[in-house]
Design goal:
Layout (H helix, E strand, L loop, with lengths): L1 E2 L13 E6 L5 E8 L2 E2 L1 E6 L5 E8 L2 E9 L5 E8 L2 E9 L5 E8 L2 E10 L2 E5 L1
Antiparallel strand pairs: 1-2, 2-3, 3-4, 3-5, 5-6, 6-7, 7-8, 8-9, 9-10, 10-11, 11-12
Amino acid sequence: MKNKDITPYNENGEAHGYWEEYHYDGKLWYKGNYVNGKEHGYWERYYDNGKLYSKGNYVNGKRHGYWERYFNNGNLCSKGNYVNGKKHGYWESYYKNGNLCSKGNYVDNKRHGYWEEYYDSQINYYI
């Protein structure tokens, strides 16, 4: 990992402000803001092939709000919401080829209620 000079710190030596980190080959690894050593605000992370790995928001170091994660081929892997670092609300996940894998709701990081899972064009329902 390489670090460019966009690395501000606060008076306590904690990361504070906008940061970028790079893979050894110089490609962007991640970018986002820190507040007093914790991720805060919008962040993006990248694979070493340059493709987007994930994007979403943090609040005080915890994922909060809408997030997307991708496979290293660029296809969407999953999307949904976090509340205080835990999955909460409607989520979808996908296979690497882009086909839907599952969808349903989370409450406090646990599957909740009705879920659908897809296998080779078959749908299995879970309650």
